[in-house]
């Protein structure tokens, strides 16, 4: 088949789903999923799906900004070759700076189209293979120690192989939380912590990280304010717990900067920060060259967005952690096909051509939407 397939129509939908209970991090609580779904249809009859989950306090976007900016992209991409993903992404970058969340939804849909056109699963299109078993952790929201202990015990009983804990307040409160969790679940199951920048300064973070050292913590995400990335190397050098950059590692330019600074040994890649799979793969390549370990995470994507992340997780051996738990927090599942959550946190990735996931028609039909054709 010729390597050309023009974009014929682009549809943009708002997707709202309540959570089972509020998901709370140091930056604030989340009560409802407020996502954007992008559907690209091509002249040759291929339909690609993409999703983003804008996070106002992290990527500075909302469901409303994404809905509007997405229409800018739909207009400039109409008629362009959907199989030339790099060229389409360049057009989006030239249209507006940043806005990486909505760019990631378009990038995802374009990759879905291209992988279907190539008649291979997305992970294979990305150069990956099924040579490892993917497992997800499960996250405990920040709250009172007793509730966090109860949640952690439930997740352990369910069989998840690792538990992620949201922190980011003061030393006394955060140590009390981890102490309670360890008393509830024992010392064997891995604990991962995420401060979401909440400890602010290097000295404060170093003090808390040292206080948490006795509790066998696997790694800590984003301990200090993202704009203090120049000081992250100090935290890494003085922390007994390995540091993983999250908010401070948005796209591949951020990754290259952090590597040059020897800032930390690990990155957390999220498609909503990178602008999509194209840039995410650039981070993977940079990290692989630097022999760094990687985690693939997400915001509040449904199984659609998490399916793309799971395909990415199969692309390289340096990707060793997956944080794909947010769809398990939804009260409803709007996705057809896609990844499956098996026992003990195992993630089963589809082997059909493309992404292998779509939003169910009934959710699209009732959603606020716009189509550019």
What does this structure look like?
- It comes from Ilyomonas limi.
- Its EC number is 5.1.1.-.
- One of its GO terms (molecular function) is racemase and epimerase activity, acting on amino acids and derivatives.
- With 373 residues, the chain is of the alpha/beta class.
- It has 13 helices and 17 strands.
- It has an 8-stranded parallel β-sheet. It has a 4-stranded antiparallel β-sheet with strand order 3-2-1-17.
- It is globular and about 60 Å long.
- The relative contact order is 0.17.
- The model has no long low-confidence stretch (mean pLDDT 98).
The number of helical elements comes to: 13
Regions with little confidence, pLDDT below 50 for 5+ residues: none
CATH class of the largest domain: Alpha Beta
Shape, please?
globular
Mean pLDDT: 98
**Class from secondary-structure proportions:** alpha/beta
The profile of the biggest β sheet is:
8 strands, parallel
GO molecular function: magnesium ion binding; racemase and epimerase activity, acting on amino acids and derivatives
GO biological process, one term: peptide metabolic process
Active site: 166 (proton acceptor), 270 (proton acceptor)
Domain Mandelate racemase/muconate lactonizing enzyme C-terminal: 145-242
Could you provide a short overview of the structure?
Residues 145-242 form the Mandelate racemase/muconate lactonizing enzyme C-terminal domain. By secondary structure, this protein is of the alpha/beta class.
